[in-house]
Amino acid sequence: MNPARLTGRAVIGLTRLTGRVTIFALRGLADIGQHPAELARQVMQIGWLSLPVVGLTALFTGAALALQIHSGGERFQAGDVVPAIVAIGMARELGPVLGGLMVAARVASAIAAELGTMRVTEQIDALVTLSTDPMGWLVSPRLWAALLCVPVLVGVGDVIGIMGGWLIGVNALGFNSAIYLSNSWAYLESWDVVSGLLKGAVFGLIVALSGCWFGMTAAGGAAGVGRATTNAVVAASVGILAANFALTGLFF
Predict the structure, then answer these.
(1) Residue 100: closest CA among 219, 179, 199, 217
(2) For 26-31, what is the mean pLDDT?
(3) Three-state secondary-structure class, residue 26
(4) What whole-number distance in Å separates Cα of residue 238 and Cα of residue 101?
(5) What is the DSSP string of 162-214?
(6) DSSP class of residue 93?
(7) In this structure, is the dihedral angle defined by the CA atoms of residues 229, 232, 233 and 235, taken in order, positive or negative?
(8) Would you say the C-alpha torsion 239, 241, 242, 245 has a positive or negative sign?
(9) DSSP-derived 3-state class of residue 121
(10) Comparing 21-30, 41-50, 79-88, which segment has the lowest mean pLDDT?
(11) Buried (b) or exposed (e) across 175-196, using 16+ Cβ within 10 A?
């Protein structure tokens, strides 16, 4: 129960885990191009099939943001800032973060469940027996698919979110359509969009890495797969929020 010993043990354990996850990620990213058909399948699974949930989330978020900004701005006679703040808020923060969290909820759990089931049923061991590298076949396509697709989803979500704010602004708040769109683009800088897309790439890597890591290290039968799925979603969500804070401080 020595506090110094317990602290040292925790620090050493965290350092070891960080090193193992880093090596795991680097091995997965280094195996790109070995299985293009599997990469294309993962792009469809992670990117295309995540578009509806990301789009709906962005639409309602943009609409709600417009209502909230207008309500708050009216207290200071600043209701006209709605188009600019909705555009900047979606591009910089809400688009990447909410898009990443939606992808984490859908993709990290699916990856962890799939790979965890393969691990506990010894299918991954069978791949090794057949001289097939599990990293190149199972991990690398998922990492690269998420890394490439999530920024695209974030960009699409930004546009849909701004359109959601436009719909509310024009139909409920009395804005002129042309003026609303003009103000949205006038105050939106290129770095606002680029920084959000860079965040999306990092968030995509975090999501896929969490799912792959917990799936590949699952043990203990069905209960182990359940724990891996839960841990993957929690780790991906917390990782996205922590990375968002770090990247926001770095970019701005």
Answers:
(1) 199
(2) 89
(3) helix
(4) 9
(5) HHHHHHHHHHTS---HHHHHHHHHHS--HHHHHHHHHHHHHHHHHHHHHHHHH
(6) I
(7) positive
(8) positive
(9) coil
(10) 79-88
(11) beeeebbebbeeebeeebbebb
What's the token pair of residue 71? 């309500």
Residue, of 128 and 34, whose pLDDT is higher = 128
**Whether the Cβ atoms of residue 73 and residue 79 lie closer than 8 Å to each other:** yes
Angle at 201 between CA 215 and CA 143, to 5 degrees: 30
Six token digits for residue 58: 């962005």
In the numeric block, which tokens belong to residue 154?
Answer: 């974030």
Distance, CA of 94 to chain centre: 12
Q: Which two tokens stand for residue 93?
A: 């923060």
pTM comes to 0.92
- Token pair for residue 201? 């790439």
* Residue 132, pLDDT score: 82
What pLDDT does 220 receive?
A: 86
Q: pLDDT band for position 95 (50/70/90)? A: very high
- Buried (b) or exposed (e) across 70-108, using 16+ Cβ within 10 A? beeeeeeeebebbbbbbbbbbbbbbbbbbbbbbbbbbbb
The Cα 116–Cα 123 span in angstroms is 10
